Amino acid sequence: MVRRYVSALAATAASAGLLSLFALTGGATAAGPGTPPGPNPAASGIGSNWYAAAPYLMPLDNDPPDAGAVMDATGLKAFQLAFILAPNGGGCSPTWDGTKPVATDTAVAGVIANIRAKGGDVSVSAGGYGGTKLGQTCGTPEATAAAYQQAIDKYGLKAIDFDLEEPEYENTAAIHNEIGAAKILQQRNPGIYISVTTAATADGTGWFGKQMLNEAKAQGFTPDNFSIMPFDGGFNGAAAQTSALTNFNAILQSTFGWDAATAYAHEGISQMNGRSDTGEYFRQADFQAVYDYAIAHHLARFTNWSVNRDRECTPPDNNGKTSGACSSVPQAAWDFTKFSVRFAGATPPTTPPTTAPPTTKPPTSQPPTTPPDGCLLPSWDRAATYTAGNTITYGNHSWKAKWWTQGEVPGTTGQWGVWQDLGAC
């Protein structure tokens, strides 16, 4: 199943949930089943596109990096903080990781204050893998919503995610409470972004995921998006992930009566960067392929678990093990976070990575190909690796890379893509 939390405290912690907003379109209002999304302005100082791209950060565990330093290095403006749970000893009040009451928290509040001081913002993830969820202990949708409202009020939240997975999503009463609470919060907090996240299968999502979607339909609740997590379930590489997204789109269509475009506008993805808990690998090139799919299909969200893991282990492969604090693949710090920045529509800093990401062939500063179209520069090569400043030719135009890339077709991602158009040649 989907386990996104790897540390010595895994018995009491949980894994990431996903906040989703609409990238590129500026978000969407909550709508009834079958209703296309409409415009919904961001409710804070940052655009909704940043919430749509916010990667996960555990602020209290898994060796959390300094959020401000990550923002400076990447241009990121939003983080998804994990996780809000019920108390480990029982009860209906929100805590961080089941152990630290939201009511008396100062540590996470300090992290949020620092992020906001730098012009950013946060969302919170409620649920995740493992732990006890508020929907299991609060008894009713109203009581569950009241518990979540405490966190919304304390931190001034503009977005929240309901991460419904093991073991909660197998409990029909708990899912009824969580979906009902989400609907109540949507009504009581105008403009708030709410996403619902669940596990993925090769078919899109499994029996419990479909049951959850039917519960949302029965209650007349539509969040800003439903996100799936295609990892820890027999996935390996980008093709398996994009296939699951296509299949999940068909499920959304059949459940809510949407057309394909509307379903994609309510669909998101959360990936796991590097080595997953079950030994799958998702490298930078895989993120690039999924990113291309997300842009082409206008997905609502693109994120990953987690910023804590977005740095190289020692040794880089971590001796074939998965860590909660590094990726277990060769990388420069924050390679994966920069994909979130791009999805939000910003340009990451162009400083070349100090460590070259893995490639299908040895990196070259200029691929040794012969231009077929009369331009003097080498032709673009899908399999080659490019870093900031590399120049190529494609489609009778010259292009310059703004940062590291592999496989991104010049001219297909607009002004926010990696390639700067230098004009016809």
Secondary structure elements and pairings:
Elements: H1 48-53, E1 56-57, H2 67-74, E2 78-85, E3 95-96, E4 100-101, H3 107-117, E5 121-127, H4 134-137, H5 141-155, E6 159-163, H6 172-188, E7 193-199, H7 207-218, E8 225-229, H8 238-256, H9 260-265, E9 267-272, E10 274-275, E11 281-282, H10 284-297, E12 301-305, H11 337-343, E13 391-394, E14 397-401, E15 419-424
Parallel strand pairs: 1-2, 2-5, 5-6, 6-7, 7-8, 8-9, 9-12
Antiparallel strand pairs: 2-3, 3-4, 10-11, 13-14, 14-15
**How many β-strands, per DSSP?**
15
Radius of gyration: 21 Å
Helix/strand/pairing category: alpha/beta
Residues in helix, %: 25-40%
Q: Major β-sheet, in short?
A: 10 strands, mixed
Strand portion: 15-25%
Explain how this protein is built:
With 425 residues, the chain is an alpha/beta fold. The chain has eleven helices and 15 strands. The strands form three sheets. Strands 1, 2, 3, 4, 5, 6, 7, 8, 9 and 12 form a ten-stranded mixed beta sheet that branches. Helix 5 packs across helix 6 and helix 7 packs parallel to helix 8. The longest helix has 19 residues. The chain is globular, with a radius of gyration of 21 Å.
Q: Which features would summarize this protein structure in a list?
A:
425 residues; alpha/beta; 10-stranded mixed beta sheet; 3-stranded antiparallel beta sheet; disordered N terminus
